[in-house]
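User: Need the bound-state model for magnesium ion:
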Amino acid sequence: MVFPSSVFHFPSSALGFMKSLREISIQYIKGVGPARARLFKNLGIETVEDLLYLFPRRYEDRTQMTPIAMLKLGETQTVSGKVVGKASRRSWYTRKHVSEAVIDDGSGRLFAVWFNQPYLERYFKPGLRVVLYGKTEVYKKRLQMISPEYEIITEQDAGLNTGRIVPIYPLTRGITQRYLRKVVRASLDKCRDDLQDILPVPVRNKCRLPNIRRSIENIHFPESPALQEEAIKRISFEEFFLFQLSVIKRRMAIVSKPGIEHEIDLALVQEYGKAFPFSLTPAQKRVIAEIAADMQKPAPMLRLLQGDVGSGKTLVAFFGCVAACRSGHQAAVMAPTAILARQHYQAAQEMFGRGPFRGLRMACLVSALKPREREDILARLLKGDINLLIGTHALLEEEVKFKKLSFVVIDEQHKFGVRQRALLSTKGTNPDVLVMTATPIPRTLSLTLFGDLDVSVIDEMPPGRGKVETRLFTSEQAGEVYRTVREMAEKGRQAYVVYPIIEESEKLDLKAAQAMYRHFLENEFKGLNVGLLHGQLSREQTEEVMGKFRKGEIQILVATTVLEVGVDVPRASIMVVEHAERFGLSQLHQLRGRIGRGRDDGQCLLIADPVTEDAQARLKAVLATTDGFKIAQEDLLIRGPGHYFGRHQHGLNELKFANPVAQIDILELARKEALELTHADPELASPANGVLKDVIVKRYPNYLDMIGAG
Ligand code: ADP
Ligand code: MG
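Assistant: Bound-state model below.
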């Protein structure tokens, strides 16, 4: 059983222990003592509770090892054998230090190879018995594993380290797996009976979950695959359950506040639909209707709008702004970058500068404004002269005060933290809030994760879009890619060339945007109009570059990932991504979303030399589909939810072990139970739920505020 790499360690936060366990320093566990206790402390483990809630990262079934002779190439397997030889050398080619050990298990021989870990030499003495875990390959006619995980096994190890399902813990620096297992075993023996169960008995019975003692025992030392599975289910359920209890409460706290009842005319909705040179897609119309309905209600709206890149979310969001302004209020749109904020502002000016919505008075607030401009905007905002304010984080500053803010849009919401999202809303009195994201997630999952949001989905693209073809090249083939770009530019097409960092860094040895820009001017793109865009340009410079690119005066735009979010230049149809292996999957998808926005078919040319398995998986996925939902699903699986959503996202920090993607069934079960419990005992006031409440309050500190008892 392997978990994605975000599963792991619990801080000494509140779990279902009696006080005593949280107070017992691990120093008093057999085999630890003060010196080792300090070592543990570096790893964030101080108490017995911390240790028992340090869950395995994965397990190895060592009841049966794979004989070396039967190893399957390309698969990750566990073998056990005797060290029969070792060697170390320096590679003349890569200059790396190479250590090798030869392992024999009677059925065959295997080479284990490690780089730059010279101390390993002392480790692998011939005659020792070792366990290796890694991927097998054939290199120069010999069978080998590169950098396998390893463990030296002694006679006393039977029972804990071999012949069973063995836990592999996430922390190893200075502490070996074997030692950790010993200490966990000793802690369990000493303290297991003091573990206290926080799950209400009826819930446990109904969901057939084992008690906490049995669960913690088997999460560390599973007695059988069945008991292991049961323990994993129980521990995950508990996390999801607490998470959902807090999510549900948050939702109740928000919708119970008095919001603003907007007056929205049906005529306005119809008029809006006709205000553009194209007709709205059915999905856009549907979501506009959903927003209109929410805005008319007295309860504050809290809605997540998901739609793939290019699906036309901006228009939909602007509808809410128009409706708010029409009913005498103010609206705010916050975007994560100045480029994006300016782009929204320009789009709004184009859309509403003339025609039926002329009355909108708008401004754009970013941090780079001149003091005079800024003061002017702030003053007019407070007076209500400005009714639509578009900007960046700059909107969050304290001096930004509205007269009557009633509608808030947060674009690319994953780029903001929960607190920032909430902060903008506090500038009005419970305004309606629309958060938007272009990194969509499956609907069931978003409902369960963001249980505190209603979800709207734009699930179709505007018609008449070109198709985007994606191709992969190695860095050796870059010349070919540049030639293609040049040919197309000469035919009048526009292209982006994207780099992961700005300055050339010896360490990462990346071709940076700046250096390549200069290089292109003299070489591959000589004679063409080439521009450079990165995050360190001033506002004027950025506007100048983007303006020229928009007008077609720049043919090839060399850029950093400032392009990643939202940039909308329909004429650009070619994108080159250098070092594509360094980009996350959703990032690649976002980047690719910059092209194929017009009628021309797009070409996305990825240049990459993927080494890691993850990078290979990412590139494979981005080549396989342009469907944002499929990409998102894949990305969640590759990265794990914590990294996917960003650690600051609500609640996910608290999911250390449970994985909402792989364990969606358990998540949904926990949600159902949490809803029922909240219904039956909204304040968790019954004594039977007392322990549970204590734990939730510790883990989700604002829980008390939410139930109005803070
Ligand atoms: P995203 O959902 O990625 O934020 P945008 O709102 O930036 O997408 O829209 C992308 C482009 O599609 C814009 O140029 C916009 O004007 C255009 N667009 C939006 N809706 C439609 C539509 N119904 N028909 C044609 N083009 C549209
Ligand atoms: Mg957008």
